[in-house]
Amino acid sequence: MYDILLPVTIYLIDSVLSGMYMQGFLKRKYEKRTVSAAWGTVYFFIQIVVFEVLDGILPVGELAGITLNIFAVLFLQFIFFEKDVQKQLFTAFSFVAGKENVKYIASVFHIAVNGICNKVLDYLVAEEIINSLEKSFMWIKVFSFIIVVLCGLLYAFLLSVFLLMINRKFVKKNYVLQTHENVFLMLPCVAAMCISVTIKMMILSVENGMTMIIYDTIPATKFWIPLICVLLLSTIVASVILFQKLVEYNEETGKRAILENQVRQMQKEIVEIQDIYTDMRGLRHDMRSHLANISLLVKNTAGSMNEELESYIGKMEETVKKLDFAYQTGNPITDIIIHQKWQEAEKKQIQFKVDFAYPPKLRIDVYDIAVILNNALENAIEACCKAEGKKQIKLRSYVKGSLFFLEIENDFVEEIAIEKESGLPASSKGGGKLHGIGISNIQRCAKKYMGDIDIVISDTGGRKKFSLTVMMNGKSAAGV
């Protein structure tokens, strides 16, 4: 009975942990509880049938057993999860590699605990505490049960830790794996499985018609085999960590390149806009002077102004006023950006409130403030367009000592998904979420000046508000 209890316990643990592991990476076709229960039940009976029933008729070798395990996992993934071939292959290979190596660690522990139990039994017999065959059988059953429980707990603990580490370190689960990247991740798993097959062949040998266990002939293997298995499992986890770091580095490099290109483009355009801005200011001044002179001349000549002529001059003055920027912030660059966004908001019937002033005394490059304004207001307008009824954007800034604060608040309606790895809203153009575009560039600009961003999402009276605060230190600017 106890000979079958330990394998059944292992099968049960595999069934539960494998289902939980797969759900951490793959998208379910059905409700979570349904998938968990169905996966665990089906996988448990597959293992019983293949490795206990069929193995008694046609022995399943170690390599065949690993292969059948992988195919069983892939088959269940096909039934219960959406198609994602690359991640399905990785999760299947990593799970089977983990369970095979943990199995050998648990086997050494089993031998150690069994040896201790045998010594305890010998002691009880020597002290005549066990003085009958009936008591002997009872104590053997007790120790056998203890061994099963301890080995099962150790196996469950080690496999859980291994799978949990992969699940946590593989932070970018939405990343679409390429074939060569998946090969990089699976090679350590394949190597671990191959070594586990080799270990199996080493452990058991036949000499003079008797089965020999390597632990008995070479006691040092009780240390080296578990150590090798731990190193193999660590290699799989390390490959996942390294891969994630490479993905993050590539994304960071891409974001940096986009930001630098954005700043260069803005610098190029603003050089031309500043000249136009200066000319417009002169033109407005001259036009107002000309209109005032014309009005005075007409009044002096005719004694009064004709209503038609007065209306015409009034319309000319209104046209000149349109050349004025809606907000005077103290810098032509921020004037232009806020004016453009104000015009865009007006066209889309979004109320636009501004209390912004450029901080000339702080060592903050106006191009960095321009990047923040452009991205933040673009996101705010995009979010407001999806809201109904009265929509509003508020922009304000203030200075405290050497710190410059910029706040943007806007209405929104859709759910905002926060990326686990970055803590920032997910991109709207990648998966239908809001506010993701440009947020990372805004944060990068803030960090350039030893600052950061803060996001607050509130819901008052059924109106959702998204508030972004950017802090920048104007005394210590570092390079990007």
Helices and strands, in order, run as HHHHHHEEHHHHEHEEHHEE
Helix count equals: 13
Judging from the principal axes of the Cα atoms, what is the shape?
elongated
Helix % is 55-70%
Structural class: alpha+beta
Question: What's the alpha carbon Rg, rounded to whole Å?
Answer: 36 Å
Mean pLDDT: 83
Strand content: 5-15%
Give the neighbour order of strands across the main sheet.
3-4-5-7-6
Q: Based on DSSP secondary structure assignment, what is the total number of beta strands?
A: 7
Distance between the termini: 68 Å
Ranges with pLDDT <50 over ≥5 residues? 430-436
Largest beta-sheet details: 5 strands, mixed
Task: Characterize the structure shown.
The protein has 480 residues and is α+β, with helices and mostly antiparallel strands. Helix content is 67%, strand content 11%. It is built from 13 helices and seven strands. The chain has a five-stranded mixed sheet. A two-stranded antiparallel sheet has the order 1-2. Helix 4 runs parallel beside helix 6 (179-203). Mean pLDDT is 83; it is low at 430-436.
